[in-house]
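We give the chain.
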Amino acid sequence: MIGAESLARWNNPTLGSVSPAQFIPIAEQTGLIIELGNHILETGFRTLREWRDEGIVLDQFSINISMRQLTHHNFVAQVEELLKRYLDDALCRKLIFEVTESIVAEDINRVISVMNSLKEFGIRFSMDDFGTGYSSLSYLNRLPLDEIKIDSSFVGALDKNEEDRAMVVTILNMANILKLNIVAEGVETAEQLDFLINHDCHIFQGYFYSKPLPKEQFDAYCRNRA
């Protein structure tokens, strides 16, 4: 195991478990994503430091960043303040901020500037859910990315659909040409894993290894694998 991804979950006393597919778009529309995103960053940074102090060592730790966050005028300053509060240089280099292909709908020069400012702290960038949006190769080549994540819908169809198998192979070849790390999302079966390994994909995420876990269960999961 090389890393983990921080996922937002909301358990409300009245509503019960609320899916992020419900509350994240509302937070985006209302502007609350800035406050929520800052809370997620702070919780993630603090957790990463706690894990290191407890002997749980990860090579990378991914956090999703919304476009509204990334383009907010104070985002870089907020990240810098939290980094100084919780992380040292070595832990900063473990951070990966995940963005989506919708990034290309923004002011691309502004986005690149912000990403480069954050990379000065050691933070890396990943494009999440790759293949489902509308980014072009020209944008992909311009953005200072370190990693792309093949969307789980393609991985889930590897056992059934020749077109999706061809799409995955194309993405893998393109990422290798661009010298980007590749993560396959949504890996659930040994057959999917074998296909990906045979086509030079070496990082996998999905239920084949574990469902998302609360922090305490993740701590135990890591110790049991040590």
